[in-house]
Every structure is written in C-alpha cells, then in structure tokens.
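Priority: medium. Attachment 1 of 2:
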C-alpha cells in the first residue's frame, strides 16, 4: 500500500542519469538514490527503469547527469496510490543543452478514500 509505479525514461543519447528522491514532508533530509538509468545508445529507444515510489507524502525528485553530478532538473509531485507514472527526461525543444523533465500519468491512481466514505 501507499506506493505507485514510476517508469523513468532516459531519452538523452549517451548520458547516464541518477534520480534522487526525498519526501517533501521531511525537513533538512538529504536526497536518497532512487535509480540509475543509462542510455542504451539507440536514438529511437530510450532506456527505462521501473521504480516504486511512496504515495504517503509529496515527493521531490532530482535528476542528475551521472558524468557531471549536477542537477539537470528538480520536480515536486504528489503520486497517487497504485498509480502508474512516467518521468520523461529529454532535451528541451528550446535548445540541445537544456534538459526537460515531465511527469506523465499512464494510469490514474485509485481513490483510496472510497472505503472510508462508504463506511
């Protein structure tokens, strides 16, 4: 319970990524490694890493380029219980040096408050 599936898509050719996570409910906590996602080397086929994320509190995700160890992007998101999400990491349309990170909902989460409202 209290988990969702996050598929991390690395569309950056020749770049390995490390994705870090922390709860937005935690004061002065450090980021914890969530996944390493290398790129397979084929332009039309991004590498995908599936991970489980907590839905108990909001999450802060930070994507770092493994070679440079600097933050490429940072997102805050509240995942829903049993939802299925994708984190797309790709070059921004505004420039090749800029990276865009977007969260897409693949399958909506369940309404975990439904049993409480019926009872």
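Attachment 2 of 2:
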């Amino acid at each position: 319970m209290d988990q969702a599936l996050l598929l991390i898509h690395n569309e950056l050719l020749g770049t390995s990524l490390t994705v870090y996570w922390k709860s937005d409910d935690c004061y002065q906590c450090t980021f914890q490694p969530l996944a390493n996602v290398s790129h397979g080397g084929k332009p039309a086929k991004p590498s995908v890493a599936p991970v489980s994320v907590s839905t108990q509190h909001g999450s802060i995700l930070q994507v770092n380029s493994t070679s440079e160890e600097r933050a490429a992007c940072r997102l805050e998101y509240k995942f829903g219980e049993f939802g299925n999400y994708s984190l797309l990491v790709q070059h921004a349309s505004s420039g090749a040096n800029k990276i865009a990170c977007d969260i897409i909902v693949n399958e909506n989460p369940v309404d975990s408050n439904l049993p409480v409202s019926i009872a």
